Amino acid sequence: MNGFVTLVKTNLKLLLRNKGYLCLVILLPILSAGLLSLQLDETVTMKDDSSYVVQNIEDRDDNITSIENTKLLVKIYDNSNSQLSDDLAQELAGSGIFRIFRYNQEVVDLATARAASIDSAGKSNIGAVVYIPENFEADILSGGTGHLSIMEITDDGRNALLASQVNTYINFMMQAADSTNYDKTALASLLGELNESRLNKKIEAVEVGNSLTLTSQQNHQSTRIGYSIAALTMGFLFCGVFIADIIVKEKNNKVYNRIFLSKASILNYVVAKMAMILLTVAIQTGILALVTPLMVSTDFGIPFGSYLFLVFGLGLCISTLSVVIGTLVGNTMNATYAVFAIWIVSNIMAGLYFPITSAAQWWVKASLLIPQRWVIVASEMLMTGETGVYAMYGLIVGCYLLILMAGTSIGIMVGKKDY
Amino acid sequence: MPLILIKNNMKLMFRSKAFLLMMVVMPIIVIALLSSAFKDMMASAREIDPFTVGYRIMADSPYQTYLSELKKASAENDVTLTEYPEGEIEKLIKNGNVAAFVDIQDDEYILYQSSEKKAEALITESIFDRFFYQVDANSALVKAQMAQGIIDIKLLEPDRKTATREVLEVEPMPTSTDYYGIIYIVFWSFCGMMPLAAVISSERKNAIPQRMRVSQMTKTQFYLAKFVPCFLVTFIEMGLAWTISALLFNVHWGQLPASVGIILLATMAAAAIGVFLYQLFSKVVVSVVVGFFLTWVLGFFGGSFDPYFYEDFPIMLMKASPIYYVNRTLVEFSTKGYSDYTGTCLIYLIGLIFVFGILGSMLMNRKVEE
């Protein structure tokens, strides 16, 4: 490797002399760790839609959102807090199409519930609210209808299904109360009998394509990883631009000719540049490793070491990519615009801000071309306990680097021809 | 006004094809992507086309007698039930013959759901769940009444309305196309500091600030010669992206003159911040990178990626971002025709223009005097 060490030394000197580069290498990992610490868990985010259980909410004003919107989200104000009202909530949750969030911490009057529902309309995905009055059970047991109110927030066809399900359940409760002479214990045992004798339901998911099922906590952790990756990618991309800037300057100042007239080969040159990328990424990952545990809780759902491994692999891909772009564009300013555009679009495409599993198939497939997507895929696989994740990720990173290095070599050779 | 310098600087900015491409093409690509990704989430009503569900039932099943009722209930929900006594169920789903499949057995029924057609699967589940509930509830009622010695058996009246239904009057929600169609014109308007990079690099290379000292131009004129072309170029490019996206995706903007005015102010605020950043850092690239990062952070909290109304971040942080106010005002113009946030939005933008305008010109004066 003739001249390799000299090349690396010179490059390193040039880079460390650049204040912009130093700023990016040191500050961006700190900033992205800081950004992570600002992320709070105030919203009940239901990104998995598979649950059949009634989810109790502690805070009446919790916002509830769901990216998939396949189940109709229903909020129940259970003021009755009785067996009948619980039965109604369980039946609705078990029927499949509704996701039930129940608030039963204190009695809320209808006007307040209505006002809160109107206020929550923009902030959450709640489609309808079921208001169960305080005297619900007593009313059913005295021959009444229970006086339930369904308040529809969205103009959704599934609201009709909700109304018909609620009416069916209440109708049964009324008839059952009538059949048991309005005796609370006998009614309870009849409801119990119905639950026992009901035909069992079994769900078989037929996977068309590949998908992993995450719990809502894992989804939350995956989103956190996505946010941190979004900020880190910027550091990797712009550091690559600085490395490319040196290549462009070397081209413009005819340093190429001098290097290639010496005993250093093109391979030496490319490997020296790769070493710069490796060093840069290693420093950034190192700073991240030091800063993150100090600033935020590192609960990513995967071991912190694995997180760093994924970040390191991503850094190699992204920095190399931006070096290739910078070399091919040949102008630092235009390269900066290009990587910014790539950064914004690739983060969205890779699903760093929101899960893309419900997006169109072409999108899901195209996203696999983006390195950030593989970080999300790998971390979700690690969360669900899949094996062979590190080998898979290593292979993907290797493939990216191979393709990109070939690209860089071509870029350099094109540049070399000019002279 | 230093008209010649403004004209010259505008020429320099328009010469950057990469920037022109980014400012016009990128918003259109992102609007197309995000409006399609969030279509379901932001849709006020899910639209599902009629679909077919396959089923299989044993010949001696007690549920055979209720099949006609089940078919009627399904048809009411635009679902066609088709019997497949034989054949591999998974294949039927994978080939797309049926959206879901129900295998009714003696002690259970198995619902096969396609991972690609979750909404259809859930409707199927709901229809079958309600059907089996009614059948089982009726037999429980019959049993209970017979035990009581009642001869006139009363069954379930599932169509009887017991609960009151009320449609709430809520704030109208934007469609994903309208939301992202507006939000990305705002986001890219805030990237408006970038075109100035071409001017600044050229000036620094040719020592223009030093030469300006011997010209008759005042320092304010020198500042305006950067500020004015910067926001004008961005505004023109945004106008282009705006028109193309509105025509392509049919984005509904409300209060057009007011919306145009707010976007103009947003480009001015971005230009003021931009001039300030270029004066703050000696390296153009550093200013650009800091500018990009700042814009991203403001957009991140202001609703440029995740819709602002879900309030995924602490509201204080969101309200610190000027992009939040601009987004909210323009989206509400589109959905309601007015916005309570207009005043705050205007004050914030004008405040930014003044504060960064003064800071920028102070730094510039210092540099010219050096």
Keywords:
heterodimer; A: 419 residues; alpha/beta; abc type-2 transporter like fold; two-stranded parallel sheet; 15 helices; 63% helix; elongated; B: 370 residues; Rossmann fold; 8% strand
Description:
The complex is a heterodimer of chains A (419) and B (370). With 419 residues, chain A is of the alpha/beta class. Chain A folds into two domains: 4-41 and 214-417, no CATH class; 49-197, abc type-2 transporter like fold, CATH 3.40.1710. Helix content of chain A is 63%, strand content 9%. Chain A has helices at 4-17, 19-37, 83-94, 110-120, 136-141, 158-179, 184-197, 216-252, 255-261, 266-295, 304-329, 332-349, 361-367, 371-383, 389-417, and strands spanning 44-45, 55-56, 64-65, 72-78, 98-103, 126-132, 149-152, 200-206. Chain A has a five-stranded mixed sheet, with helices on both faces. Chain A has a two-stranded parallel ribbon with strand order 1-3. In chain A, strand 4 (72-78), helix 3 and strand 5 form a beta-alpha-beta unit. Chain B contains 15 helices and five strands. Chain B is of the alpha/beta class and 370 residues long. Chain B has helices at 3-14, 17-37, 39-42, 67-76, 89-94, 118-147, 176-189, 196-205, 208-212, 219-249, 256-280, 284-302, 315-320, 322-335, 342-369, and strands at 51-57, 79-83, 100-104, 108-114, 164-167. Classes of the chains: A alpha/beta (419), B alpha/beta (370). Chains A and B meet through helix 2, helix 4, strand 7, helix 6 and helix 7 of A and helix 2, helix 5, strand 4, helix 6 and strand 5 of B. Strand 7 of chain A pairs parallel with strand 5 of chain B.
